[in-house]
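Below is one protein, fold included:
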Amino acid sequence: MESPELSIILLNLIIVLIAYLSIYPKLAGNDFNKISFYDLFASGFALLVVGLNYWGSGHEFSLLITTTNWFWFTLATYGAIEIPIMVWYFKKQKVKV
């Protein structure tokens, strides 16, 4: 059985890859405002899925040197996964910030 941390990281990875490899190129292209708008939905979806499983559970997640709740763990790992892929996408699509 896999750990809750691993399942959240895999969920975040799948959401980010689908967003940047499929959805954003079709719907947002190189428009920073559209990418930001759609990313709110992508990250919100990750938080919704994890929240449905862990809201009120009191489960603590290990985040390198500290423990945290499901919300901050999901947000931190989502950001850590998204940033390198976002930088790659912005360079590839020549997105102007």
